[in-house]
Automatic annotation (TrEMBL):
<feature type="transmembrane region" description="Helical">
    <location>
        <begin position="48"/>
        <end position="72"/>
    </location>
</feature>
<keyword id="KW-0812">Transmembrane</keyword>
<feature type="transmembrane region" description="Helical">
    <location>
        <begin position="176"/>
        <end position="199"/>
    </location>
</feature>
<dbReference type="InterPro" id="IPR026022">
    <property type="entry name" value="PhoU_dom"/>
</dbReference>
<dbReference type="InterPro" id="IPR004633">
    <property type="entry name" value="NaPi_cotrn-rel/YqeW-like"/>
</dbReference>
<dbReference type="Pfam" id="PF02690">
    <property type="entry name" value="Na_Pi_cotrans"/>
</dbReference>
<dbReference type="GO" id="GO:0044341">
    <property type="term" value="P:sodium-dependent phosphate transport"/>
</dbReference>
<feature type="transmembrane region" description="Helical">
    <location>
        <begin position="280"/>
        <end position="302"/>
    </location>
</feature>
<feature type="transmembrane region" description="Helical">
    <location>
        <begin position="108"/>
        <end position="124"/>
    </location>
</feature>
<dbReference type="Pfam" id="PF01895">
    <property type="entry name" value="PhoU"/>
</dbReference>
<keyword id="KW-1133">Transmembrane helix</keyword>
<feature type="domain" description="PhoU">
    <location>
        <begin position="349"/>
        <end position="432"/>
    </location>
</feature>
<protein>
    <submittedName>
        <fullName>Na/Pi cotransporter family protein</fullName>
    </submittedName>
</protein>
<keyword id="KW-1003">Cell membrane</keyword>
<keyword id="KW-0472">Membrane</keyword>
<feature type="transmembrane region" description="Helical">
    <location>
        <begin position="244"/>
        <end position="268"/>
    </location>
</feature>
<feature type="domain" description="PhoU">
    <location>
        <begin position="450"/>
        <end position="526"/>
    </location>
</feature>
């Protein structure tokens, strides 16, 4: 091969991989906030789970990306390991669509497909149309790259050294190792199968020499999920183990079948004059049959993964952080934004509950002071401050993610603003706790005690209606009116010497803290109302 051929081969591979990335990014932007809901609703049934996994993979042309997404969902406890089994099986079926499209030789219309996608991106104002255009353009670029690779490999037919090298692939172990190693290197079975088809289209290799390489490619594609699971939970690693065991079992079965049956000859005779179709058909047969064979044993695959990677009872790094988990480290991560929103929502609501625990205990302190409760409030305030810092940093990272869906971007921004209000709610609770002294409690009148109890009840009611912004706004108006009347009554009581000046000053500060707590609560309610992303339970 000349230098021009080599450069053309590398350029074609670059376009192929970039096309897949574009399609994944397009799907992320188009359906990132709904992807989790779609998967969750359809994976309760194993057959639907396989179909969904296959369809998602067919759209993004990458089983690795689908598997990494599943690893992320399992890691965030948004999906069970059993649900993950069916999607992983479906992903292996869906990835065969790339090979079949290549076999159909759609490279002639690939430039037109790419042009249509770019036209949608450049000349439409709709965000949804732009996202779809990105998927279409990615598909066209993928096949332009495939055509470049096939053309670049044509001279290899004349290379005796290369022909001699590929004949060794007929050795099952060599072929499997070569296929697995090369696919692990470029982290894409679709791309490695495409290169194998390009070799076949150039007349360099036939199915009898390529079949074991093809099986090895299915094992090599697992490396992306393996790398993505590093640093994640044990459950996420179990999902990766399922993906790996699925392909190893399939490779073992089909290697034996090909060695002792005429399966390869039969597949060749299906399309005797189309080498690329032969590889595509074998790839499809491998994944479809392996899925059918293992479908009844999905439960046992999950149990096997749990057996070899049992959950460790290790100490949590910081028990104050309950929900935020690091996302899988992979550029192929699809659905990462949806995972981030779910985790941020849960952690923010956890922070809100802690702030209101402080509010409730602060009111109790006004009525009966306790040194133990005083310590609990300050300890909880430290936790709220810690969560404010960590969640803010997590949101900042999530907002920097490319191709963010508009709804997800709005949700992240709203949570970011909420953190300030929640932190202030806890601060005002600490202020009230500071006002609670043993000396003043004995000086409070019955009516003043009733006011404190009423304020506590109103705070609880306000928190319970934060998901209804209209009701929260109504209650805030009621609270403002009540505080105004209480202040007036307190001034009159002070004039008539019916209360001490110390208690009056304390209540005045409490009224301010109480009013501001509910003002910040209303801000939280208004930000929650802006969030249109459905948050799964």
């Amino acid at each position: 091969m000349t230098t021009t051929n080599i450069l053309s081969l590398l350029g074609g591979l670059a376009l192929f991989l970039y096309g897949m990335q574009m399609m994944g990014n397009g799907l992320e932007a188009a359906a990132g906030d709904r992807l989790k809901q779609i998967l969750e609703k359809l994976t309760s049934n194993r057959f639907l789970g396989v179909i969904v996994g296959a369809l998602v993979t067919a759209v993004i042309q990458s089983s690795s990306a689908t598997t990494v997404m599943v690893v992320g969902f399992v890691n965030a406890q948004m999906m069970t390991l059993q649900q993950a089994v069916w999607i992983i099986m479906g992903a292996n079926v869906g990835t065969t669509i790339t090979g079949q499209l290549i076999a159909l030789d759609v490279s002639a219309i690939a430039p037109l497909v790419a042009f249509m996608g770019v036209a949608l991106i450049m000349f439409t104002k709709s965000a949804k149309a732009t996202d779809i255009g990105q998927i279409i353009a990615g598909l066209g670029i993928l096949f332009i790259g495939m055509n470049m690779m096939s053309t670049a490999m044509m001279p290899l037919r004349e290379s005796k050294e290369f022909v001699e090298l590929v004949t060794h692939f007929s050795n099952p172990l060599v072929g499997i190792l070569v296929g697995a190693g090369f696919t692990a290197l470029i982290q894409s079975s679709s791309a490695s199968v495409g290169i194998l088809q390009a070799l076949a289209a150039s007349g360099v290799i036939g199915l009898d020499g390529a079949v074991y390489v093809l099986f090895g490619q299915n094992i090599g594609t697992c490396i992306t999920a393996v790398l993505a699971s590093i640093g994640t939970s044990r459950e996420a690693k179990q999902a990766t183990a399922i993906h790996l065991s699925f392909n190893i079992i399939g490779t073992t079965i089909f290697t034996i079948v090909c060695m002792f049956t005429p399966l390869v000859s039969w597949v060749i005779h299906l399309t005797p004059y189309n080498a690329t179709a032969q590889i595509a058909n074998m790839h499809t047969i491998f994944n479809v049959c392996t899925t059918i064979l293992l479908l009844p044993f999905g439960k046992y695959l999950a149990e096997f993964a749990q057996h070899i990677l049992p959950i460790e009872n290790k100490e949590i790094e910081d028990e104050r952080l309950l929900y935020l988990q690091p996302l899988p480290k992979s550029k192929k991560m699809i659905g990462g934004a949806a995972i981030s929103v779910k985790q941020i929502n849960d952690e923010t609501m956890h922070m809100l509950s802690l702030a209101y625990e402080n509010v409730n205990q602060a009111f109790d302190q006004l009525l009966q002071f306790s040194d133990k409760t005083d310590e609990q409030i300050y300890k909880r305030e430290d936790t709220v401050n810690y969560l404010d810092k960590v969640i803010s940093e997590y949101i900042s990272t999530a907002l920097a993610t490319p191709n963010l869906n508009v709804n997800i971007s709005q949700a992240l921004s709203s949570y970011y603003l909420m953190l300030v209000d929640i932190e202030r709610i806890s601060d005002y609770a600490v202020n009230m706790n500071h006002q609670a002294t043993k000396r003043l409690q004995g000086d409070m009148t019955i009516s003043e005690i009733e006011i404190v109890e009423h304020m506590k009840k109103l705070c609880v009611d306000m928190k319970n209606d934060l998901d209804d912004v209209e009701e929260a706004e109504r209650k805030d108006d009621v609270i403002d009116s009540l505080v105004s009347s209480w202040r007036e009554a307190q001034i009159q009581a002070l004039k008539q010497k019916k209360c001490s000046s110390e208690v009056s000053m304390m209540l005045s500060r409490i009224f301010t803290d109480f009013e501001r707590i509910n003002d910040h609560a209303l801000n939280v309610s208004q930000e929650l109302d802006k969030i249109t992303v459905e948050i799964p339970d």
